Amino acid sequence: MAAQLLDGKVMSQERREEIALRVEALKQRGLTPGLAVILVGNDPASEIYVRNKGVGCEQVGMKSLTIRLPEDTTQDELESRIRELNQDDTVHGILVQLPLPRHLDEASALAAIIPEKDVDGFHIENAGKLFSGLPGVTACTPKGAMEMIRRTGVDLTGKEAVVVGRSNIVGKPMAMLLLQKNCTVTMCHSRTANLAEHTRRADVLVCAVGKPKFITADMVKPGAIVIDVGINRVDGKVVGDVDFDGVKEVAGWITPVPGGVGRMTITMLLENTVEAAERMLHG
Fold it and tell me: Is 4 an annotated catalytic residue?
């Protein structure tokens, strides 16, 4: 029996309707949540992401500000713009679109954003809070993936979860969130020996390695929840890290690419911005 589809378009739309109500409640109190996105250079993929973020803001009634900086922007110029936005009370979320041009230091730029406005959840303070189980801003992609897992209705307590990929943006925070839900978590990566032995044990399998169709049907436990975070371009098409056609015949639930986790990522960015505005209002 084919897996149930975890449709990011549908879930995202439902969540955005809830976010729009929260935005309206803030507006009634004289505050319009604002998201500022800094885009350095003209990377085509980044242009698409930034446009989608703007559309998302418009959809829920938030203010959107896109700051475009030339490819040759210096580190000082970039961080100066970030500091200006830190001081701007009409901006509740600041996002630096990655990747930055090679001459710029991403870690330093992200650290310049004050933690309260770090709606991507990348600041070391927010990462530390997640690691410590304290309330803070959660990285958007793992947060969206967890919402999709929640929608399956499966009780995660005691379940085996395997995360393939160890990035600071997805893999590590994903493992922490699953751990908080009482999963037994295994983190795998490019150097993992006998990867399939680990993945076949997973009741929840999250793949974020950036290799097209890397996870095949024989690597998946029957009935598993499979979350595909990968976005790869192959012959002009966008495909995930999971061989969707094969794996959907084995898994219990699966996310498509496109139309899966990516949709939820932007929705969680909007939610993080609204939460930042609510925190500002309530002190």
Answer: no
pLDDT digits (tens, 9 = 90+) for 95-127: 999 999 999 999 999 999 999 999 999 999 999
What pLDDT sits at residue 283? 67
Q: Exactly one of 59, 97, 159, 172 is catalytic; which is it?
A: 97
* Catalytic residue (one of 59, 118, 120, 213): 120
Interatomic CA distance for residues 278 and 33, integer angstroms: 9
The one-letter amino acid code at 46 reads S
Helix (H) or strand (E) holding 3: none
**Residue 221 known to be catalytic:** no
- Active site (annotated) includes residue 155: no
Cis bond before residue 173 (omega within 30° of 0): no
Does residue 49 or residue 23 have the better pLDDT?
A: 23
pLDDT band at 45 (very low <50, low <70, confident <90, very high): confident
Alpha-carbon distances of 4 from 42, 210, 233, 241, rounded to whole Å: 38, 24, 25, 18
